[in-house]
Amino acid sequence: MTKQATAQSFYYAGLAAVALVIVLAVWLLFRDSSPVTEPAPLPPVTLPEIVEPTPLPEPPITLTEPEAGPAVTDEPESVQPEQTPPAPLPLLDESDTELGQALLALNWKAGLAGLFNREEMIRNFVVTVDNVAQGRLVAGHPVLAKPADGYKVQQLGDDRYVTAADNTLRYEPYLQLLESVPARQILALKRRYQPLLDEAFAELGYPDLTFDQRLRQAISVLLSTPEVKPGAELSRPSVMFTYADPALEKLPEAQKQVLRLSPQQQQRFKALLRTYQQALGN
Fold first, then answer.
1. Per the UniProt record, which residue ranges are transmembrane (predicted)?
2. From 28, 155, 250, 273, which residue has the greatest number of CB atoms within 10 Å?
């Protein structure tokens, strides 16, 4: 069918619809205006006399009272089940066994839970947080096991190095470990052992500072790590490698540790930190 024929079809269909509406309107408005022819009168009809029957006497009605049913008592009050109080916390010096079991019960990625150091867990964590908040790293209080292989570099020339491209692989299991359990499970564990965390932090001698304040400071230090393009040159004036760029070398040790991650790993790590930062509040 051509466009012209189609247009004509719609045109005529529209006219038909308008005509139908007009016809219905006329019928509705003028249906009572036409003259009505009255029919011829019918001859009168004589109806037979109707004799009312004599009503019969109604039988007496005896009302019987319904039998009393069992007494209705009030609905029993709903009894709330008693909540089991949480088990008492162990002493700080004896907390490794319970905390280790609770930690390993979380849904960590298979094969990675063994990265946790299970000795002096609470004290090591508190000391690590305290040092990171000040930009430092501490070697004597490990929270996690060290990577199996050492730090890898690639030599460019005399006393010129860069971090090896595959060095970031050594940190991947640790990131996957942290990403494998939702933050709410970790925070629930923290709430359970908060008194022991506070006790261990009090041993460090900060009367005007709480552990949670220190933890927020540590997260802030790590999140403030600048974004640096891969390939920053290193030098080795002694046993340790240092950044050739003085501005990078002046960064806190904790931030320089973050720079060892690849840019993608740094983004994942900082996303985790922001999740915990929001959960802890200000």
1. 12-30
2. 273
